[in-house]
Every structure is written in structure tokens, then in C-alpha cells.
Amino acid sequence: MDISQLFIIGVPADGDVSSIQEFQPGGVILMGRNAAPMIEIRRLTRAIREAVSTPPFLCIDHEGGRVQRLTDGFSIIPPAREVGTVGADAVSISAMNAAAELRSAGLNFNFAPVCDVPVHADDTVIGHRAFSENPIRASSLVAEYIRGAQPTVLCCAKHFPGHGGVGVDSHKGLPTFDGTLNDLQSTHLPPFRAAIGAGVAAIMPGHIAVPVLDDTSTPASLSLPIVTGLLREQMNFQGLIVTDDLEMGALKNVDAGQIGVRAIEAGNDLLLFCHATDKAVQARDAIYHAIESGVLSRERVEASLERVRATKAKYGII
């Protein structure tokens, strides 16, 4: 059982792939520290592929606006709100163009679109990263984006069940959604339902406590009632579930090993560690020990491994 396939890890700024070769992850993410001209990104993605025995997901945050890691040799993408204001055709064309450039650079997985509906007065992290403050319009444009991009690269809808209803940035602390179940159903969940309807390959739970769904105030990313109960079972999502970066401030009081076990236990398929490979190693080792001790069932882990394998096969990665 190759637990490493359930991890997406980062690349050092110097492009050294030795840690990737040692870990053999299921995926690799490029960050701002890896920004370079397109020809150098091609060399890096080729080196990553050569360093692992199983072809990896090669991931990036390439939303546009203030979240676009690669710019040299890549088209500058306006914020989602700006593109969405022009209309559905503009969203589809922008998504197709961005996906084609990413694929040309050797990447196959984009952590976009943002499905959040930013309606909280103190929102500082989503803003114009979202298509609209209107859930109906946001839902329509999310679907257009996925239909435009996903024939070329996998898409990941984020940040489930919605980061737009909180006022704290989960990079810095743990936000709590204080709204009602009706607020979730009417405002924040529709874009994710639209993404599922459009066939999105993956969905990313956010580090957001949602007491109306889980009264323990566990972050959505580590919550069985939210990841498995709501997303997998109630909303019948059959694709990949990918955590947000597990090194963010919202989880700063939980050690990496515990985070890894809890994330898998909740129902996530892929665990994202963008920066510290040693933390990914701790999480991987803890998952092995949890299986051996019976804390995690072998069937739960094998289900995620099979979903990762099947997704790579479906999209021609393996």
C-alpha cells in the first residue's frame, strides 16, 4: 500500500527534486517560489516526472488576479470577478487559454475555480477571486470555467463548503461560519453543486469551522460530517477530495501526524503540504501507524488510493 500516492508536496525554490524522488508523492505543487519563464517550468515539470515512478499530478494555483503563480511567458489573467463581469463566453475562453498554457508547461492540475460567494462584510481573502456575490451567477460561471478548462487540465473547486461567509483568513487563523443551514444551502453550496454538475475532477475543503454541520467546530477539511457526510454522501460527489494546504495557520495547533490521520479519516483523498516535506513525512508515517493499529481502516485508505489511480487513468496521466 503506497501511502505516498495520497500526498501532494511542494518543490524547493532551487528546483531540487531530490526530496520528491525520495518521497515519491502522488502529486507535486508549484508555488510562487518556483516562478520562472515557461521554458524553465517545462524543464522543472520534466525533472519531476523523471524523479517519480508513478506519473504525478502536477499542480498549480492559477486562478488569475492576485493568485497567479506563473507570469513570465504566460498570459496575465484578470481576477475572476473582472472576467465574470464580461460574461460567460469570456470566462470559458479565459479558462481554455489558461489551461492550454499550463498544459504546454507540463502541468495537468489547476486548483481553480474559486466557488466561494463573498458576502461577509469582513472578507479579506476571497473578494474578486470569486466570480460573483450572487450565488446564481457564481454557479453559472463556475460551470462555464470547468467546461472550458477541464478538457485540458483537471480543475479543483474550492473552498468547500464556502469561504465567503467568514471574516478570518484561514492562512492566519481558523474562521468560523456563523450562518444558518439555510445560508449554506441558498448562498454558499450552489456553486459547488454547479461544479459537480459540470463534472469537476476535484473539490477542496477549506479550513473553516461550520458549527451548523459539525458542532465540534472541527475545520471542514478534517470533518467527517462535512467531507464524507455532506460532500461525498449527500451531494454524491464521486471525484477527488483534496485538502487545502495543511500547513496553514488555521491548523497551527495540530501536529502534522495528527493532521494526516484526521484528514484521511474525514474522507479526503489527497493531502496537500505546500512547503515542508518533513511534515508530509510525519503525516505519511502517522497514517501507516494508524492503519497498523486499527485507528484507520485499510479499506478507507485503499478507497482513496483507487480514486487517485482511477482519476489519473481517466485523464491520461498514467
Describe the model.
The chain is of the alpha/beta class. It has one domain: TIM Barrel, CATH 3.20.20.300. Helices cover 41% and strands 11% of the residues. The protein has helices at residues 18-23, 38-51, 80-86, 88-104, 135-149, 181-188, 190-197, 224-234, 256-266, 277-293, 298-314, and strands at residues 7-10, 27-30, 57-60, 62-64, 67-68, 109-110, 154-160, 202-205, 240-241, 271-273. An 8-stranded parallel beta sheet has the order 9-8-7-6-3-2-1-10. Helix 4 (88-104) packs parallel to helix 5 (135-149) and helix 9 (256-266) packs across helix 10 (277-293). The protein is globular, with a radius of gyration of 18 Å. The protein starts with 6 loop residues before the first strand and ends with a helix. The model has no long low-confidence stretch (mean pLDDT 97).
Task: Write out key terms for the chains shown.
10 strands; single chain; alpha/beta; two-stranded antiparallel sheet; TIM Barrel; 11 helices
